Amino acid sequence: YRYPGEERWALDGVDLDLGPGRRVAVVGLSGAGKSTLAGVLLRFLPYQGGSLTLDGIELADLDGDECRRIVGLVAQDAHVFDSTLEENLRLARREATADELRAALADARLLDWTEDLPNGLSTEVGERGARMSGGQRQRLGIARALLADFPVLVLDEPGEHLDTETADAIVADALAVAREKATLLITHRLTGLKDVDEVLVLDRGRVLERGTHAELLALDGRYAALWQREER
Q: What is the DSSP string of 180-232?
């Protein structure tokens, strides 16, 4: 059913398996149910039927904070506080060493930029990260998620609101550095999906098609049509 007054659909019969190192992408038109799935996985939204387990534990038996210590989110807009780069990073793990901070920044491709700043990690980023570009803010969000070391990572349109080249680079880098984690990528763009293990195409809350990038192109269905439109 469609949520009352909203342009999004509830999930119906969606099933997927996310194990360590497995990368699954969920695509579909706006309102198809992609972000609803992310909300359920993070316990921001309840589920009223079916089963959702995390390492064998029913998700409904975990409180939200407990769940979100295991499942991490890189959202469309990384939240950045009016503080220093270091303080924003340490939100993920207060006790992180300097080497661990540098490693997270390097994996997110922010280390060179940080080291070129006169004040390095002590640089004030401004309200909502006003002194950073949109791409840098998103990369900071990725670095924070990597520093927190979540076993499960949800990438919810991490390149949204950015130019196409920057968005595609951020998605590719996020998938690359999260290769040992269970990773769910939610996206409306199909660039880079050759590198994921499975793609689910959602339509009105249901799985319309599923398979690898190559399999879905060969199917010549909804995914193939979206791909052809994007490639023009």
A: TSEEEEE-S--TTGGGSSEEEEEETTEEEEEE-HHHHHHHTSHHHHHHHHHH-
Answer yes or no: are the C-beta atoms of 216 and 209 closer than 8 Å. yes
Q: What are phi and psi of 211, to 5 degrees?
A: 155, -175
pLDDT tens profile 39-83: 888 988 888 888 888 888 898 888 888 888 899 999 888 889 999
Q: What is the pTM of this model?
A: 0.89
Nearest to 81 by CA among 96, 92, 69, 95: 92
Helix (H, G, I), strand (E, B) or coil at 132: coil
Output the six-digit token pair for 42. 């993070």
DSSP state of 161: T
- Six-digit token string for 48: 């009223």
